Amino acid sequence: MDGLVSRRHLSLELALSLLAQVRAEAETRGLSLAAAVVDGSGHVLASQRMDGAALGAMQLSVGKAYTAVSWATPSGEFGRSTQPGGDDWGWNTTDSRIVVYAGGIPLLVDGELVGAIGASGGTATQDEECAVAAAAGLGFD
Question: In terms of C-beta density within 10 A (0-12 exposed, 13-18 middle, 19 or more buried), how is residue 95 classed?
């Protein structure tokens, strides 16, 4: 079995570093965001809501991260396919944790899914850019 099973885990320290990166990126853009980091099973490791961020942004950031880790795909990739007539139409109504707006990014290390980060409070594009910057700043794939 040696070498056949591998599982990397995100530490709390790394999750907090990701949140600090999101916060720093948001501040450079004049944004107030909420952000959440989930592990490979979709459980929240750490979350934050910056001063001035909308109350609802926290729940959306967790949902974006959950969606990204559940399918190892950025949450925004499902925006069009879940609309009426799309291949995934209605799928996002099957689980209240699923959020199909951009801002959730899977976290990969050497191609292995280890978790996800979600951000919310700006436009969907701004949320995703801040999450991508945080992940890239710490060396995720």
Answer: exposed
What is the spatial order of strands in the sheet that 44-49 belongs to?
44-49, 34-39, 112-120, 104-109
In whole angstroms, give the CA distance from residue 117 to residue 90.
24
Distance CA 95, CA 24 (A): 32
Q: Could you list the pLDDT tens digit for every one of the 141 residues in the chain?
A: 455 656 688 999 999 999 999 999 999 999 999 999 999 999 999 999 999 999 999 999 999 999 999 999 999 999 889 889 889 888 888 889 999 999 999 999 999 999 999 999 999 999 999 999 999 999 999
pTM: 0.93
